[in-house]
Amino acid sequence: MTPTSTIPWSRTKVCTRGDGYDKGHLCASEDRVYCEDANKQTFYYANISPQIASFNQKYWMYLEQQVQKWGRSTREGTYDKVYVVKGGTLNKLLTNFTGTMKGGDGKYPETDAEGFTIHGLAVPAYYYMAILAEKGDTYHAIAFLVPHSELLPQKPTADDFQVYAVSIDKLEQETGIDFFCNLPDVIEDEVEKAYNKADWAW
């Protein structure tokens, strides 16, 4: 991991050491492979969030790969553009958690009653993705709101992903964030109110 100019190295390094969590990328390294500088930016501390190892390395990774396929399908003309927003629910934290599996540092991940690690980092109870695909004058949207848990499928299928699929409106209700607000209101209202799994190449 690399410090950014606004985050002191000593603080970020200490705050992530020995807490049992993976340094989970929000923007995945594989999302930024078009040039070396863009890929390096995914390793900034500003782009990481504490993630349970099995969550980060299994379910979430496979979901990221599914979304990357949608993004790269622009080359074949399935979509013209795909926009992706990722994050964790800082308004809903993982409280009083003690993991049953050690992280890569040999420690069990834990949170306190407020949802913070031993070093005071907030641990989201959910991670999410909001996806908007554009094809000509047509838009499709889908979101995923995934519990931050050790208990998710280790080799998830499309059906496993769809369990946590929600509309953009639902994700906005849960996070308090207004996604894709630059769309014209009439388009935003229509595309965000529901999702159709048939719109997506699983």
Automatic annotation (TrEMBL):
GO molecular function: endonuclease activity; hydrolase activity; metal ion binding; nucleic acid binding
Protein residues bound to Mg(2+): 56
Keywords assigned by UniProt, alphabetized: Metal-binding
Stored InterPro entries: DNA/RNA_non-sp_Endonuclease_sf, Endo_G_ENPP1-like_dom, ENPP1-3/EXOG-like_nuc-like, His-Me_finger_sf, Non-specific_endonuclease
Pfam families: Endonuclease_NS
Keyword Metal-binding attributed: yes
Metal-binding is among the record's keywords: yes
ENPP1-3/EXOG-like endonuclease/phosphodiesterase domain sequence ranges: 2-186
Domain DNA/RNA non-specific endonuclease/pyrophosphatase/phosphodiesterase: 3-186
Active site location: 25
PANTHER family associated with the record: ENDONUCLEASE G, MITOCHONDRIAL, ENDONUCLEASE RELATED
UniProt name for this protein: DNA/RNA non-specific endonuclease
